[in-house]
């Protein structure tokens, strides 16, 4: 019987491996067990920090996560993080001011951080309380700030190594914020430059017209009727420039405009658009044709609708650098009016079609920032309409604006 019990224990059983009896617990065993538990908590905190830093989008949130992980790893009740990113005016702190870092102490630390960063140097702030332990947050010799531990216990070598890893994660994340800020700043400057270039180009045509009409009024011996006509055209071009400025400001601000609706015949609307685009078409040898099955009255903001049609026509002209035909059609549907602008240009690749109305998207154009079609869609939608298009490489494109039919008031 005893041999059967011994066999059930298994061949690996040895009497010297038996667990200690109650009251005979090995202190070294407990110390190692506590060390492993602490190490596990520290690694868990570091892992949680790494995962959290992948999702944050603001530097102050980064500092809060780093401070929380630092407290857990070092086993302290208080740990503060101070850091500065890019050209931000002042450093961020992970928590509001409190002892031992009141406002005066913070100002001294911020001054030291700004001075070291301006000199592209690293180091520690002077005058810290004796019970504060600082750890530097730096990357490749670039200083971002410090983790400041209040009343820390003696830290083991393992814990210090983990805190160095923590500081490295914080520095890498803050460095990425700096790179992102630099990229955004560069893209903004590029976009502003391109936008200014487009605005200057769009303003050149009306400015040329205004100069020509003003010269005729001043220098030529023309009759009252012709003088009045020139003055009217000057006013019209000036209003066009003002409307262009309003469009850009409204689009960038995202506001809803107040439409100045009025009655205008379809033929007059298309004639205004043709007059504004005919110079571009003529320079490229493009023929303008109109096929207006609907010639009735629309109630729209004529200036904005002309601008929408002009944006489409200008894109069409760019798509036909060696000549072609631009055709404008109108037709009536039940409760709706359609205006179609079709060109015989080079067309648009299928993979680019979903991006046509994206702001700042431009492709294969000698000028422009890609706001024209985005503004066009906004104008149409502000009128309660919709815009659709079809295109094929080598065959051209067609944009169709559909507007609700409104009965003119008597």
CATH architecture of the largest domain: 2-Layer Sandwich
Helix content: 40-55%
CATH class of the largest domain: Alpha Beta
Low-confidence region ranges? 1-17
> Cα distance, first to last residue?
115 Å
Task: Give a structural overview.
This protein has 410 residues and is α+β, with helices and mostly antiparallel strands. It has two domains: 27-183, Beta-Lactamase (2-Layer Sandwich); 262-277 and 285-404, 2-Layer Sandwich (Heat Shock Protein 90), CATH 3.30.565.10. Helices cover 50% and strands 18% of the residues. It has a five-stranded mixed β-sheet with strand order 6-8-9-11-10, covered by helices on one side. Helix 2 (27-53) runs antiparallel to helix 3, helix 3 runs antiparallel to helix 5 (157-219) and helix 8 (302-318) packs antiparallel against helix 9. The radius of gyration is 36 Å and the shape is elongated. It starts with a helix and ends in a 6-residue tail after the last strand. The relative contact order is 0.07.
Helices and strands in order:
Layout: H1 2-9, H2 27-53, H3 59-74, E1 78-83, E2 92-93, H4 103-118, E3 132-139, E4 142-150, H5 157-219, H6 224-253, E5 262-265, H7 266-284, E6 286-292, E7 297-300, H8 302-318, E8 324-333, E9 336-343, H9 372-382, E10 386-392, E11 396-404
Parallel strand pairs: 6-8
Antiparallel strand pairs: 1-2, 1-4, 3-4, 5-7, 8-9, 9-11, 10-11
